[in-house]
Specification:
Elements lengths: L6 E16 L3 E2 L2 E2 L2 E16 L3 E5 L6 H9 L6 E6 L2 E2 L7 E4 L11 H13 L2 H6 L1 H21 L15 H13 L5 E5 L7 H23 L6 E5 L3 H7 L2 E6 L15 E7 L11 H16 L10 E2 L1 H7 L1
Parallel strand pairs: 5-10, 5-11, 8-9, 9-10, 12-13
Antiparallel strand pairs: 1-4, 1-6, 2-3, 6-7, 11-12
Helix pairs in contact: 2-4, 2-5, 5-6, 7-8
Length: 320
Amino acid sequence: MIDKNDIVVECKNISHWFDCRDDNKKIGNLWQGNDFRKKVLYDVNIKVLRGEIVALVGPSGCGKSTLLKAILGTHPPLQGDVIINGSISYKPSRHCGIVYQTYSLFPFLTAIENVAIGPLLDKTNTVSRTFHPFKTQEMKKTFHKRAAQLLDDLGLGNALNSYPHEMSGGMRQRTAIAQALIMEPEILLLDEPFGALDETTREECQRLLLTLYMQNEKRRNEGKTPYTILIVTHELSEAILVSDRVIALSQHWNWNNNSQDCPGATVVYDSPAPVYPPDVEKEILEFTSQKNEIKKAAFDPKYCQSRDIYNKYWKLLLNS
C-alpha cells in the first residue's frame, strides 16, 4: 500500500507552451510576422516516490528540461500544478537542488571548500561573519567535515584539497553533485549532467549514481531520508542503467483523435528499470528489450498509439 506521504513529487495535469513570433515576412523595410503558440507539454501526470532514481527521456524538443525547470520552480507550468511533499510549489525552494551539464564550481576554491561554501553562506551573513568570527569558524569546521564525508562517499576522498583545474571532468561533476547534496534537498535534479563528458568519464559518473542507489538502502536502514533523483538524459542506455524507473515524454501519440494540431508532448512510457549494482555485468537481453520498447513508444513517429499503453509502472507496483 502506497502512503501519500511516500510521494515526494507530483506533476498534476501539467501543460506548457511558449508564445512565439514568426518574423520571416518582409514588407518594405520591416519584418512582419505572425504570433503563434509553440506547444511543449500536454497533460503531464507523474508521481515520484521518495528514494526513487527516475530517468526522464524523449525526443529532442519534447520538453524534458522544461518539465525539470517546472519541478525546480524557476519556470512554473502555465497549466497544472507541481506538488512537492503535498504542497503546491510555485517558486524555487530548498526542497530541490539541481546539477547542470556545466559545473558551477568556484575556480579559486578547493573541492572541500566548494562543497562547504553553500551551507556556510546559507547559515551566515556578512555581519555575522565579521562580528562573530569564532562562531563562524566553528560552523565552517562542521560544514567542512560534512563536505569531506560527502566527497569521500562520491569517491573523492583523495581530492579534498584539489582545485577545479587540477581535477578531471568527472571529478568536477561529482564535486558539483556533492555541492547540491550538502544542502540536503528533498529532490536532486540532474539536467544532462554527463553530456559534456567523454565516454570513459561518463561511465565513471554513471557508476556514481548506482552507488547513490546502494546508499539509499543504507540510509533507509539508518532511518535517514533516501535521495530522490530525477535525471534528464538523451541516452537510453544511460537511462536504463542508472535509474530504477524510466519515464518517456513524446509528441508521438494518438493526439489526432483529439485535435488537428499536436497539443504537446506527454508521458507515453513509465516502467521500472532493472537495477545493476556498480561493476556488476548487466543482463543484455533484458536491457536491450526495454531499450527497444522505449524507442517504439517514444521515438518512432509512425507508432502513434494511446499514450497509456506503456504507462505500466503503477499497475506493476500495486500488483507486486
